[in-house]
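Page header: ASSEMBLY MODEL / two components / 903 residues total.
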Amino acid sequence: MGGDTYLDLVNSGFTAKVAKQLGLPRPARLRRYRAGAPLVDGPVLVLGEGGDADTLAQFLSGTSPEHKGWDLDVRRHAGEGTRFAAVVLALTDVAHPRDLAEPLLTLAPVLRTLAPGGRVVTVSRAPSPDQAPALAAARQGVDGALRSIAKELRAGATGNGVVLADDVPVTAPAVLGALRFLLSARSAYVDGQLLPVDSAAGALPADWERPLEGRVAVVTGAARGIGEAIATTLARDGATVVAVDVPAAGEALAAVANRVRGTALQLDVTADDAGGRILEHALGRHGRLDVMVHNAGITRDKLLANMTPDRWESVIAVNIAAQLRINEALLTSGDFTDAPRIVSLASTSGIAGNRGQSNYAASKGGVIGMVQATAPLLAAFGGTANAVAPGFIETEMTARMPAVTRQVARRLSSLQQGGLPVDVAEAVAFLASPQAGGVVGQVLRVCGQSMVGR
Amino acid sequence: MAATPSSPPAPTTGAPRAVVVGGNRIPFARAGGPYARVSNLDMLTAALDGLVARFGLQDEVLGEVVAGAVLKHSRDFNLTREAVLGSPLSARTPAYDLQQACATGLEAVVSIANKIRLGQVESGVAGGVDSASDVPIAVSEGLRRTLLTLSRARTVPQRLKAAAALRPGDLKPATPRTDEPRTGLSMGEHQAFTTAQWGISRQAQDEIAFASHQRLAAAYEAGFFDDLVTPYRGLVRDQNLRADTSLEKLGKLKPVFGTRLDTPATMTAGNSTPLTDGASTVLLASEGWAQARGLTPLAAVVDAETAAVDFVHGEDGLLMAPVYAVPRLLARQGLGLGDLDYVEIHEAFASTVLTTLAAWEDKEFCLSRLGLDDALGTVDRERLNVHGSSLAAGHPFAATGGRIVASVAKTLHRRRAELLAAGEDRPVRALVSVCAAGGLGVAAILEAV
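Prediction written out in full:
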């Protein structure tokens, strides 16, 4: 892979000084997960009034009577000179846009001293047309404010939110799970996102370091790039991994399977019996199948004006038709019923569109529609289907872009850099985890708050 | 006259069955091709890596890994053990090298199966590897002796005397030869005698070669090798495979063996196996071991027989030993050719297959030489080498046995499942026959599980 030389230059020695003086964009080295590292690197400020704020503060600090909590150094007031690693804004009680002033203006001075790689996370409730206009306005206001704050942050800090449905308590597993994910280094390249939690389903893991212990996960396209990172990350989180890729990628696939102590399955996902063969392998070898990650994907870029049928059809076949067929096989098997998880790779192209990618965007838009419609089919088993939409990720594919285009693409996000395959993998691992059970039919963007799309 | 040795009793029933669980090989490459700079150790390790990945054997302590190579560097004295140490298998997995010319791979399968049946091991990997590209080059005998004498010499005059014994001709390196040491003839020249002796036509040989390519290509297209082969060094399929070959194209090739015989030469580069690089592995286990790991037994290794012929004095053709091994094996198991659903006869040359079949169909030969009371019989061509064999896949000597056993075990298991689905519950069996240099031949019977 190309490697981001510019990022290296603005972060070291003399060139860093020059970049600062010239006012050039200065992307930071992002805080990423390391085993044994603390969840956050310093005190956490919990802002907001009311019961939910107190409950969250108690949970984070480990003083809650019902939950074990995370033993963080939690403060309820922004003391002078304290350098906070994270700020949680409990905004579930806002009823009028006026109510935003108090917590946000309290946040204002804290932002100036936020630690590098810091976190701002809002916890709010979803607006809807059947609410009083002032209430809906206040709740939707959180969305606009958070996205703007995220754009204001520097030095690898990110701003994200968790948006609860009205009947979901703040102690629901997915609320705490999402909050922990967004506070942690695992969400390094997730920025400016508001993740809805629509149900209280899910379960807190016995061990937060290995939430997928005892689970069997299938990852397609696992031989290299993002798929390899997903296989590695799921295995790190405790899952037994079945690594799937086309037979021609078998050598790299075997290396991945051996590294993650899983099994390799050489399979073309577009084969009619792909779903059956995946099930047979997972059940036969590992006794179960819990997580299906649809990562295999191809691009055959052309302007629609120059599009050929084979370019269009092959992209649809691999990127969406294969996923639909495999999901159907899993859903009708009767063996995918223990809080199953489907996580599918979408793309910012599928959200905002991309010139020359009408076929790819159709397939990735299709993925979004698919997970939204598949999630309800899994709800009865405590299952979920969600998508992850990567933005600019440093892979072999993006390394082939023209150099200038690549440099520009990297800077077109709040974090002013491309993400790494592991950043996408972390998001997939979160959605695959038991604690994410209340996140259903959503698209989680991993794009560093790309300027493209929402 | 070769008398049939008295058959030992069939293995006691009640002993654990040794089953083939699966296999893995790298695509076979033509000598000087993509694996030209790859060692036997690299290839065997790669085949083992793929097997471990397919079956999730990381950190597993297997009973034994047995493999070998025909063309071997002296530094590879512990080739198989080194491959195990370089693989994700537990370093506590024992291993040893075995070599029986082209029968190495099949003999490795038989060795492990026997240990499993005796209860000495629960699991094992049989394998083989050969490189016709990365072959050892030795110094000449003269130079070797001089160097050894020099190393023993203690005084300057002794050293000078030893060095003086060196002749310019001694500086020529010695490349390995696959010619028969006792006759100086290549395997092809030997087989040309046998081909002429049995009157095997060029057309019949080309048809065998054509079928081999057609069937191997069809098997690849059908995804048959998706769980048998792991690509290596950019090679995804066997390099020697010519899916587009035809009888016309094969018919145009010039004969390369038997050109100095009185009869017309019929053996070409198309109906003879090319020099090949590659490696294969087969996972064997007791049924209990396989079940405990969620692995599906494909076929049991029922029995095996090795024969040898006196080719030196011209009594039999160099590659005709399987002709003797198979009837003895079938007799011991109380089976006839008609009881076999599949017959795999290694295609060293197309004519090897044809002379073997001709001998079994020849009543006079079967009576006088095999000690039978009638011709052994005819092999249905539809059951012969159904997914192609060495003419299309290539033949890295020691790797061929593993290739055949893994493929035929999968074929047997599939066939049995099909029959069961159709309500037919009967044994499904295959015969595997591999000829080898030195007048050797190994045959084995596998039965679907």
